[in-house]
Amino acid sequence: MPETSATYAAFLTFAFVSSITPGPNNLMILASGAAFGWQRTLPHIVGTLLGFTIMVAAVTLGLGTLLGQNPNALDVMRYAGAAWLLWLAWRLAQPALQRPSRAASVAEPPADARPMTAMQAALFQWVNPKAWTMIVGASAAFSGLSSEPVQRAAVMTLTFLAVAPICIAPWLLAGNAVKRLMLNGAHARLISLAMACIVAVTAITTVAAG
């Protein structure tokens, strides 16, 4: 158990706020829900939770200290994550940029489009700039959760694992609601472009903030 309830309450608040605010994971789940529906997006969510919690444990057990000694590593991860997000933005924009004759069915994703698998979502966490910022910052700021690294890693991991699904759910439901709105070709084009722009801006601001 954490050494002080006040420290844990502060960490719980941090975990909730950082997990529910916009970021690459939530935006990608929103986009996947809009493109493929909530059922086909579930493996994406499972992979996100799995990859993120493994990162929390790894950083808390020592990887965070190693990265702190090699700041260039975080820069590489930030740029890699931004590149991935820009690719996602392009994929979201493609149907809306097609000719009007073809875009009438823009509510359907391209024929070769597939929702992200659990493994792909888990691996994405390692180049997700927001995930690294959250975890490294939390590991340093909430070291008072426990003097034992293993116990601290367990507390942080289980807390994020409990909080994250609650925070992800609204984004998934919003994406599924958007999918229902995309029955009209004109609306679908605008929504696809809007989501692509949001993801692209997230990528750009991630790099600029560094």
From TrEMBL:
<dbReference type="Pfam" id="PF01810">
    <property type="entry name" value="LysE"/>
</dbReference>
<feature type="transmembrane region" description="Helical">
    <location>
        <begin position="45"/>
        <end position="64"/>
    </location>
</feature>
<protein>
    <submittedName>
        <fullName>LysE family translocator</fullName>
    </submittedName>
</protein>
<dbReference type="InterPro" id="IPR001123">
    <property type="entry name" value="LeuE-type"/>
</dbReference>
<keyword id="KW-1133">Transmembrane helix</keyword>
<keyword id="KW-0472">Membrane</keyword>
<feature type="transmembrane region" description="Helical">
    <location>
        <begin position="153"/>
        <end position="178"/>
    </location>
</feature>
<keyword id="KW-0812">Transmembrane</keyword>
<feature type="transmembrane region" description="Helical">
    <location>
        <begin position="190"/>
        <end position="209"/>
    </location>
</feature>
<keyword id="KW-1003">Cell membrane</keyword>
